[in-house]
Amino acid sequence: MIAVSEALERILGNLTPTGAETVALSEAAGRVLARPLEARLTQPPTDVSAMDGYALRAEDAAVGARLRVVGASPAGHPFEGGVGPGEAVRIFTGGALPPGADAILLQEDATAEDGHVTPTEAPRRGRWIRRAGLDFSAGDTLLPAGRRLTARDIGLAAAANHPWLTVHRRPRVAILATGDEIVLPGEALPPGGIVSSNAHALAALIRAAGAEPLVLPIAGDDREAIAAAAGAAAGCDLIVTTGGASVGEHDLVQAALGPHGFSLDFWKIAIRPGKPLIWGGLRGTPLLGLPGNPVSAVVCAVVFLIPALRRLSGLAAGPVETRHGLLGRALEANDRRQDYIRATLSRDGEGRVVVTPFPMQDSSMLATLARAEALMIRTPHAPAAEAGTPVEFVELSSLGV
Amino acid sequence: MIAVSEALERILGNLTPTGAETVALSEAAGRVLARPLEARLTQPPTDVSAMDGYALRAEDAAVGARLRVVGASPAGHPFEGGVGPGEAVRIFTGGALPPGADAILLQEDATAEDGHVTPTEAPRRGRWIRRAGLDFSAGDTLLPAGRRLTARDIGLAAAANHPWLTVHRRPRVAILATGDEIVLPGEALPPGGIVSSNAHALAALIRAAGAEPLVLPIAGDDREAIAAAAGAAAGCDLIVTTGGASVGEHDLVQAALGPHGFSLDFWKIAIRPGKPLIWGGLRGTPLLGLPGNPVSAVVCAVVFLIPALRRLSGLAAGPVETRHGLLGRALEANDRRQDYIRATLSRDGEGRVVVTPFPMQDSSMLATLARAEALMIRTPHAPAAEAGTPVEFVELSSLGV
Predict the structure, then answer these.
(1) Which residues from B are below 8 Å from A76, CB to CB?
(2) Which of B291, B313, B335 is the last residue of a domain?
(3) Which residues in A lie closer than 8 A to residue B25 (C-beta atoms)?
């Protein structure tokens, strides 16, 4: 058995990001930039007003002075002339500061009548003026390569005048569920049969991670069927199998794919749930073999598949992010496997996060997994812990899982 | 000016969830359940083994005893017979427990040869047996209505044998950007022009929230154009305008839409950035008028639009979730507006979250918004605060913004 951290390192070390494609700005949210994004213009392009009021020369604008309003500078329609002594230009938020003006008189600090304006409070030179380039200047790197684009980034890319963006292609991930006992939801269920849930949960997880799932037809516990189905994954960036990775006689994935060019890297990890996990390659395509147990499959997907998808997507590689909280109930000492314990989250009286494990952690309990808000991490050989002990956890909702 | 909490209450009080539609399980991740999801079967359907080993009678399985292996019960292929005295059935994880057996002998606690098995460690009655219904039973409510379906929920719905799910229709949200000064990204930029960024950022935010954006053509600062564009939003669940909500002479949205059946509820909120914000209805369609300033628009979208979209989507209504951290730098006392301060997040030596405001908070700085990880909330009239003071913040990434 190898440690979780070593397994993850070996998985990530074997993967390279997908190539680039060009997509419309309106389709780019959630995608990962393949090149740094540079500003194509300066924003604001010139000095502009931050408020509605009057652009004028501060030295002219003593309280009670009477200035002639010679024009207007609304946003988008710069005043063509300048501001001379004793003059003012009506200006609006975002409007260009006319040449000559060095101050903004707020409209609430002025009385206007008859084409003239009179300060009731003297403006300060430079105040309420946004200088050219305050936000960014042409050529500035606004967003680095390898960044997953947020809604805010889309706004920034738009403001920087990019109708198209260069992003990593979505990784294509084939999902192969194996097992004689599984059937698709809604289909006739034979005695002893179980409805296939892993492929659908994994497809949703893969899509939420920004990749493209390809759900292959279920393969029975039969070498030929598994080999044929895996062959259909050609052109994918990753093959994910589920089932057939335990230590029993029915572990067929390795046996079925070996003759077809499968090379194994490792297949036993000190993790619970999920010890049996295959990592290798099928004729150059990386293959991650998840356990058939639905809870183990999702936990291993959180720990190994999501980082792998991030790496393929062009994001920084590493373990999924964790948070800190306080243990909600006492736990016994751990053995040599790293535990991922289904738990709920709450807040104590002081607003601190409390992480409370479900009392039953049987790995067949999918309803408990769905109800869980967190996977609490217990390192191998962690000692017994009282309620209130600081703990580390993965928050499932923040991963889109 | 009304308080943020009152404004949000009035907005949410005016909205009702969309109707239901039926979607395939494979399309349902991220959607909101419109009806509780009931289990259509019992899982496991019968008592099954949790491990690979041998099903037998505990009383027969003393260390050194020799039991005859009379068959096998792999997952999906129940053994047809039973287990009598002195007998054992080879069993695999998920395999049905044959009648007569009451214990599982782990394969690592046994030696097998010649059609017989001998315990090297005595099994305990009932251990490693998953009872029928351990996960769920037919008729159990597995997921409540109003829940946004996670990848784990999809797995659970599949396991409960649901190929189709009934979810709320995605809210349709029209986005109307107004302003003479704005042009689409990549188009010729006139003097004083600004590239339209709000509509694209909002569309991404709306899509991330599970709704369907409809980006209307930009309307200039002209009553007819605004009225015509807004008319194109018929059939939407919400109209979001951006621009035209400030106190200057160029506030056209209200003026343009008034004659076309617009009724105003309120339009000034004690919030920074973003004081001007319109809430009302256009002939029965709710209308949220966001500020034209891009930072204000996104902040108001986080505070008001996301909760509105959640309400329309059938989720529980309320403010967006906040977290707690420690202030990273001293702040002056606040005035009467509720501040949403762009900030970065880090961890101190003890793992606590530190929230550090950017030194410049000018509302035109979109690059600062993109770089922010959090919006730190300061209540109206909050006193001056030292570094280390507990603070509340909205984490932007957890909202998909």
Answers:
(1) 179-182, 190, 192-194, 221
(2) B313
(3) 185, 200
Do A194 and B159 lie within an 8 Å CB cutoff?
yes
A262 lies in some domain: yes
**Chain B residues within 8 A of A208 when measuring between CB atoms:** 29-30, 151
Helix, coil or strand: residue B10: helix
Domain of B353, in residue numbers: 323-399
Best residue of B22, B69, B180, B197 to probe chain A, by most A CBs closer than 10 Å: B197
- In order, the DSSP letters of B290-349 are E-SSHHHHHHHIIIIIHHHHHHHHTSPPSSPP-EEEEESS-BPPP-SSEEEEEEEEEE-T
Contacts of A53 in chain B (CB under 8 A): none
Mean pLDDT of A288-310: 95
Task: Determine, yes or no, domain membership for B318.
Answer: no
Q: How confident is the model at residue B249 (pLDDT cuts 50, 70, 90)?
A: very low
User: Three-class SS of residue B207?
Assistant: helix
Same domain for B64 and B110, yes or no, is yes
Residues of B in contact with A138 (CB under 8 A): none
Please give, rounded to a whole number of angstroms, the shortest distance from the CA of B98 to a CA of chain A.
Answer: 11
Interchain pair A150, B397: CB under 8 A:
yes
The whole-number average pLDDT for the span B368-393 is: 97
Domain boundary among B75, B107, B130: B130
Specify whether B181 is located in the same domain as B86: no
CB contact under 8 A, A130 and B94: no
> How many A/B residue pairs have CB atoms within 8 Å?
307
Please return the burial class of B51, using the count of CB atoms within 10 Å of its CB with bins 0-12, 13-18 and 19+.
buried
Same domain, B108 and B34: no
User: With 0-12 CB in 10 A as exposed, 13-18 as middle and 19+ as buried, what is B343?
Assistant: buried
Q: Is the pLDDT of residue A226 over 90?
A: no
* Calpha distance A320→A12 (Å, rounded): 12
Are the CB atoms for B3 and B380 separated by under 8 Å? yes
Dihedral, A50, A56, A58, A64 alpha carbons, nearest 10 = -110
Best CA proximity match to B9, nearest among B209, B323, B272, B307: B307
Contact by Cβ (8 Å): B395, B373:
yes
Residues B108 and B144 in one domain: no
Would you give the DSSP letter of residue A331?
B
Confidence of residue B246 (pLDDT cuts 50, 70, 90): low
pLDDT at position B227 is 86
Q: Which of B30, B367, B372 sits opposite A142 (nearest CB)?
A: B367
* Residue from B202, B201, B233 nearest B216 by CA: B233
Q: What is the mean pLDDT of the segment spanning B214-233?
A: 87
Percent above pLDDT 90 for chain B: 77
Query: For the segment B38-68, what is each residue's pLDDT rounded down to a tens digit?
Result: 999 999 999 999 989 999 999 999 999 999 9
Q: Do B158 and A190 touch (CB under 8 A)?
A: no
Mean pLDDT across chain B, nearest whole number?
A: 93
The total number of structural domains that make up chain B: 4
- Convert the pLDDT of each residue in A7-31 to its tens digit: 999 999 999 999 999 999 999 999 9
Report the C-alpha gap between A204 and B162 in whole angstroms: 15
User: Which residues of A are less than 8 Å from B193 in CB distance?
Assistant: 76
Query: Which pLDDT value is given to residue B398?
Result: 85
pLDDT digits 0-9 by tens, A154-171: 999 999 999 999 999 999
Digit-coded pLDDT (tens) for B175-217: 999 887 789 999 998 887 889 999 999 999 999 999 999 999 9
Domain of B183, CATH number, reads 3.40.980.10
Cβ atoms A196, A184 nearer than 8 A? yes
Give dist(CA B77, CA B96) in Å, integer: 8
B234 within a domain of the structure (yes/no): yes
Among all residues of chain A, which has the CA nearest to that of B198? A155
**Closest residue of chain B to A40, computed from CA coordinates:** B186
